[in-house]
Design a protein that fits this description.
The structure holds two protein chains of two kinds. By secondary structure, chain A is α+β, with helices and mostly antiparallel strands. Chain A is about 45% helix and about 20% strand. An eight-stranded antiparallel beta sheet of chain A has the order 5-4-7-8-1-2-3-6. Chain B is mostly helical. Classes of the chains: A alpha+beta, B mainly alpha.
C-alpha cells in the first residue's frame, strides 16, 4: 500500500472531523496501527484541531463546575464507575461489512502465515547448509591445529637439541665440483651417540639411486643410514648411532646403499669441530 | 491559553483512572473552556451547551479507563466524547430541523448567533478568519455540525472524493494557520 497516497486521499482528515463511516473509522485506526507515518500524520492533524478548539475557548459559567462535580457518580469509584457495556446498534449492513472485513483480515493473516512459513523453512535450509559448511571448516581447522602442534613439538625438540651441550652440530657443505649449493645438518649426541640429519638442499636423485650418510671414524667410512628420497625439507630424521665420528658425508649410491662409499659421488662433507 | 497541553504525564492519567477528584478538578480547569467553546459552537444555545458539557464530563469520568494513550491525546479523546454527544443531540428529531434551518447556508450560523441577541445565544467568534471560505465551511459543517461525508456531498453538491480532498485541504490550511 502506498502510505503517501493514503494520507493524500484526505481520509485521515475526514476521520478526525468525524465524517467517516464506521468501516472507514476502523480502517483508519487499523492503518494508523500498522503505519507509523499514518499515526504521525493523524497526530499532527489532531493537534491543529486541538489548537483551533483552544483558540475558540469559552469559559463556562463558574457555577457549572460545582454542578458537574456533584453529578459525578462518586459513590463507588473504580468498579462501579467502570463503563457500562452499551449494546452496539448494528444494522445488518454494517454487520456484514464488518464480517467481510474480518474475513479479509483472516485471508491476509493466512497468506502472511504461509509466506512466513515458507520464508522460515528456506531460512532453516540455509542455516543447515551454513552449519555443515562451518562443521567442515571446523574439522579442517582442528586438523590444522593438530598438525601445527605436532610440527611445533618437533621444532621445540630441535631447539632443545641445538641448545643442548651434548649435541655437536655439523654443517655438511656442498662439494665445489659436485653441488656447491647443497647443504645438510647433522647433529650428533656425544653422550647417547644418536645422530640426526636435516637435509636442506640436495639435487634430485634418479629413481634407482639414493643418498647414503657416512660417518668417518678413524679415517674409515661407516654407513649410518639411507636418506629417504622425499626427505628434503621434512625436518630432522633419526639415523643410526655412531661411536666417535670425526666427520660426516653424503654420497649418492644405488638404491638400498653400498658397502663402501662412491667417492666420486660425494655431495656434501663436514667435520666435527 | 492558545496552546494545548501536549504533555500529560502518565501519573496524571493514572490519577484520573483512580477517579481522584483533585485530578478531575485540574482536568476541568484546563480543558472545560476549550470543550465548552466547541459545544457552544455546535449547539448554539447556552443551556444546551452546558447540559452537553455536564453529560460529557460524566461520560469522561465513567469511561476514563478506556482512554488509550496510543490512540491520541487525552484532549482529542475528550473532544470526541463532547462532539459525539453534541452530534447525538443535534440529530435527535426535535433539534434536527431547527439546526438545519439555522445552518442552511454556512456562515449564517455566526450571523444568526450574533443577530439574535436573546439571552440563550452567545456571540461566537468567527471561525479562524484567515481560512478560505470553502475550507471554513468544511470545518464548520463537518467538525461543528457533524455532517457525514455523504451529507456534505449532497449538501454541497460535490462528489464524495472532492469532499475528502477538500477536508484535507481545509485541515492543511488550519495547520499552517496554527503553525505561524
Amino acid at each position: 500500500m502506498d502510505v503517501n497516497e493514503y494520507i493524500a486521499s484526505g481520509i485521515l482528515e475526514s476521520y478526525l472531523l468525524g465524517t467517516v463511516s464506521e468501516q472507514e473509522r476502523k480502517e483508519v485506526e487499523c492503518m494508523s496501527h500498522i503505519y507509523p507515518e499514518i499515526k504521525k500524520e493523524l497526530d499532527v492533524i489532531a493537534v491543529s484541531l486541538e489548537k483551533m478548539a483552544f483558540s475558540h475557548k469559552i469559559d463556562p459559567p463558574a457555577s457549572l463546575k460545582n454542578k458537574i462535580f456533584s453529578a459525578l457518580p462518586k459513590d463507588a469509584p473504580g468498579s462501579a464507575a467502570q463503563p457500562k457495556v452499551v449494546p452496539l446498534k448494528t444494522s445488518t449492513n454494517t454487520y456484514q461489512s464488518f464480517n467481510r472485513l474480518l474475513a479479509a483480515a483472516c485471508v491476509v493473516m493466512a497468506v502472511s502465515m504461509i509466506a512466513l512459513y515458507f520464508y522460515q523453512a528456506s531460512q532453516v535450509v540455509d542455516l543447515e547448509k551454513n552449519l555443515r559448511a562451518q562443521e567442515a571448516q571446523n574439522d579442517k581447522n582442528n586438523y590444522m591445529i593438530a598438525s601445527l602442534r605436532e610440527e611445533m613439538a618437533g621444532k621445540n625438540g630441535e631447539i632443545a637439541m641445538f641448545r643442548s651441550p651434548d649435541f655437536k652440530t655439523v654443517f655438511l657443505k656442498g662439494i665445489e665440483t659436485k653441488s656447491k649449493s647443497s647443504l645438510a645438518i647433522v647433529c650428533w649426541n656425544k653422550e647417547s651417540k644418536e645422530t640426526v640429519i636435516a637435509v636442506q638442499n640436495l639435487p634430485d636423485v634418479d629413481p634407482d639411486k639414493q643418498y647414503q650418510l657416512w660417518a668417518m671414524v678413524d679415517n674409515k667410512p661407516v654407513s649410518i643410514g639411507m636418506i629417504p628420497t622425499d626427505s628434503v625439507l621434512s625436518g630432522f630424521m633419526k639415523m643410526n648411532t655412531v661411536e666417535n665420528p670425526q666427520a660426516f658425508a653424503i654420497t649418492m649410491e644405488k638404491k638400498g646403499g653400498s658397502e663402501v662409499p662412491t667417492m666420486e659421488e660425494m655431495y656434501v662433507f663436514g667435520q666435527i669441530q | 491559553m492558545n496552546q494545548t497541553p501536549q504533555h500529560i504525564d502518565e501519573q496524571f492519567v493514572q490519577e484520573l483512572k483512580q477517579r481522584k477528584e483533585s485530578a478531575f478538578s485540574k482536568l476541568y480547569d484546563n480543558y472545560s473552556g476549550a470543550l465548552y467553546g466547541v459545544l457552544q459552537r455546535m449547539l448554539i444555545k447556552e443551556e444546551l451547551a452546558q447540559d452537553a458539557l455536564q453529560e460529557s464530563f460524566v461520560k469522561i469520568w465513567k469511561n476514563i479507563d478506556s482512554y488509550d494513550k496510543s490512540k491520541g491525546t487525552l484532549f482529542t479523546w475528550m473532544l470526541n466524547i463532547c462532539r459525539n454527544h453534541a452530534i447525538d443531540m443535534l440529530r435527535s428529531k426535535n433539534m434536527k430541523q431547527k439546526i438545519q434551518d439555522i445552518d442552511k447556508s454556512v456562515g449564517l450560523v455566526n450571523k444568526q448567533a450574533s443577530a439574535s441577541t436573546s439571552e440563550d445565544h452567545v456571540l461566537i467568534k468567527e471561525l479562524v478568519d484567515n481560512l478560505k471560505p470553502e475550507h471554513r465551511q468544511m470545518i464548520e459543517m463537518a467538525f461543528y455540525k457533524g455532517y457525514t461525508q455523504e451529507e456534505l456531498a449532497e449538501e454541497l453538491n460535490m462528489p464524495l472524493g472532492t469532499v475528502k480532498t477538500r477536508a484535507r485541504a481545509a485541515l492543511i490550511q488550519l495547520r499552517k494557520y496554527f503553525d505561524k
